[in-house]
Amino acid sequence: SSARGDLNDFNTYYSNFENPIIQPNESSRLPWDAPNRFLFYGRFHTPYGLTFAPVVDMRTGFPYSTIDENRNFAGPRNQAGRYPKFFSVDLQVLKSITLPGRFSKYKAELGFKVFNLTNHFNPRDLQNNLASDSFGGLYNGVGRKYGTRITFVKK
Q: 19: Cβ–Cβ under 8 A, 6 or more apart, which residues?
């Protein structure tokens, strides 16, 4: 996929940034540009009411810009480089059960899920200030996460 467009969009002015950096209008890669991506997902039903739902996501890292000590962009926006390659394997296992008694017309799906099963470092933040001693540092990777799920469905 490719994502190019206007970098001074509506969200630039009305987002959750207290003091947004508004620069002269420019068209370039958008922050979610990922030209090389492989995505696999599915739902596999097995005996005993178990369902496995894996997701494998592998893609090029998103583009970023560099800024100077005054928070001005240094060079063309979103063309200073890319985050490292993103890789994540997620898995959800569901068990379908029929509810007892007067609720027998419903079933429940009880589930367990694991996000980033391989615990791959996928940073979400980058120190892009050229004046920083930590310039180029990658931070805020989400490690392996666990969760549960309960869904009620009418048969």
A: none
d(CA 25, CA 38): 32
The pairing of beta strand 106-115 with beta strand 86-98? antiparallel
d(Cα 12, Cα 31) in Å, to the nearest integer? 12
Kindly report, residue by residue over 90-130, the tens digit of the pLDDT: 999 999 898 899 988 999 999 999 999 999 999 999 999 99
> Which residues is 44 bridged to in the sheet?
52
Strands 125-126 and 138-139: antiparallel
Q: Could you tell me if 146 and 112 are in contact, meaning their C-beta atoms sit under 8 angstroms apart?
A: yes
